[in-house]
Structure formats: C-alpha cells, structure tokens
Write a structure and sequence with these properties.
The protein has 196 residues and is of the alpha/beta class. It has two domains: 133 residues, Rossmann fold, CATH 3.40.50; 52 residues, Ybab, Chain: A (2-Layer Sandwich). The strands form two sheets. It has a five-stranded parallel beta sheet with strand order 2-1-6-7-8, with helices on both faces. Helix 1 links the parallel strand 1 and strand 2. Helix 1 runs parallel beside helix 6 and helix 3 crosses helix 6. The protein starts with 13 loop residues before the first strand and ends with a helix. The model has no long low-confidence stretch (mean pLDDT 91).
Length: 196
C-alpha cells in the first residue's frame, strides 16, 4: 500500500487517518513510509439484529449517521433498535477516542491532503459514513487507501473520494480476513502503541 502511495512522500499538509483497530496497523506502515503523521478516525458499524457483523448503517466520530433503511427494514431493525444501537456506538466512539488520544486534540483537517486507511472494506457502510463526515471538514484532498474490498463496493466509493487506491478488488468476496495470511484481532493497547 505504501509503495502505491509513494508519490506523496515529502508532501506537506499530508495526514494519514486510520480506522481502528485493524486500519491502524496498515495506516502505521503507510505513515512511516511517507513520513506523515498518523491519527485515527473512528466510525462504528450499526449491526443488524441477530447478525451484528451485517452493517445496516454506521456512526462517525462527528455524529454523522449513515443508514441503509431498506436493509434495516428487511432485517427487522425497528426505529427503537436503530436508536439504541446508534447511541451505543456513539458511546463506544467516545471511549475509544479517550483511550487512543488521551488529552491530545483531534488533528486539524482543513486544507490537508488526507489518506484514509483501513485493513479492508466489506459492505462499505462504515467507510461511506467516514467519507461523508470527513467531506464536511474542509480538507484539500481525500485519498482512500484500501488493501482489499469487493469490486462493487470500490466502484460505489470511487466517486465519493478524490483518489482511490485498492490493491485487490475481487468479484467474489467473503470477508476481509480471508485475504490475509494472519488476521488477528488488534487490541486497544496495540493501537495506542502504534499511534505513539
């Protein structure tokens, strides 16, 4: 990923934003290779009832909510369920921000060239909510950098960013972890260590 972004090395106003937790592992490597600062942008998936891995929407750090109402209806997610899950994820965002950043303020995004990194994308709901939120911040350029994602998801997100780098976009896609030799859960402590 860092090699594909090497044309940005030495750019001033460059910032790598990683989506925790797994995205921080990839983002750290990119930031190191480009001599760029690394920070986090936390967006949390709103999972379907009885299937929390299926994203019916997402909540971004700034409170932006993206919801697939059609999917939510099909899986039986009531308005109360959606409101409860949204509030639960907002609290988790606050907890993680406090843990990962401590007292450091969020980075200034206005006028920056931002590389948004995750370890992969499945449905794209979390990433789309993140992009929508970041677009409000006055950044100069938004580059989405993803190791792997389904082809249709990449095509949907391509028009929402200034540039998209994806290493592998297969037609048949099961799960992000299936494209890694090792896909261990990243701990909060590991995220904190990589950010420091």
């Amino acid at each position: 990923m860092a090699e594909k972004l090497s044309f940005l090395k030495g750019e001033k106003d460059l910032l790598v934003l990683a989506i925790p937790r797994g995205g921080v592992v990839v983002g750290h490597q990119v930031a190191q290779a480009l001599d760029a600062p690394l920070d986090v942008y936390i967006t949390r998936k709103i999972g379907a009832p009885y299937n929390p891995e299926l994203a019916i929407g997402a909540v971004a750090s700034d409170g932006t909510v993206l919801l697939d109402r059609s999917l939510a209806s099909r899986v039986g997610a009531s308005e109360n369920y959606i409101a409860e899950q949204t509030e639960r994820e907002r609290r988790e965002i606050e907890r993680r921000l406090a843990k990962y950043r401590g007292h450091r303020p969020p980075p200034e995004l206005k006028g920056k060239r931002v590389i948004l990194v995750d370890d992969g994308i499945a449905t794209g709901a979390t990433m789309e909510a993140t992009i929508n939120a970041l677009r409000k911040s006055g950044l100069k350029e938004l580059i989405l950098a993803i190791p792997v994602a389904p082809k249709d998801t990449i095509e949907r997100l391509r028009g929402k960013v200034d540039r998209l780098v994806c290493l592998h976009a297969p037609e048949i896609f099961w799960a992000v972890g299936s494209f890694y030799l090792r896909f261990d859960q990243t701990s909060d402590e590991e995220v904190i260590s990589l950010l420091s």
